[in-house]
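Workshop exercise sheet. Pairs work together: one partner reads the sequence aloud, the other fills in the structure field after running the prediction. Swap roles for the next sheet.
Pair: D.N. / O.F.
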Amino acid sequence: MDDQQQADLHSHRRDISQHWSYSSERYAGGDNLLTAIERGWTIDLRVVLRRQWFAGMRCIEIYHFTIRRADVVADMAVLGNPYVTRFLASQPYELVEAEAAAV
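Structure field:
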């Protein structure tokens, strides 16, 4: 992500950082993803989308981002919402359905 893209992204967000720990939290929000970027984590270009269906009628989307910093690599499972959708549309990520990729 270049400096202009980061500036555009941050101009639309609140001035709040949210802590998330890959060792203790199963899911993250879009705000956790942005906080990770601000704190020096990098994101792999490949993002895996997994849809979880409940009773065959209700679906939630979970985006799996591989994040890296120094020698630490983690899977950040971000719950889908309109903000995350806009974030992905504004970045050069390759979105892969979970059926086509191992999560």
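Discussion prompt: The mean pLDDT is 83. What would you look at next?
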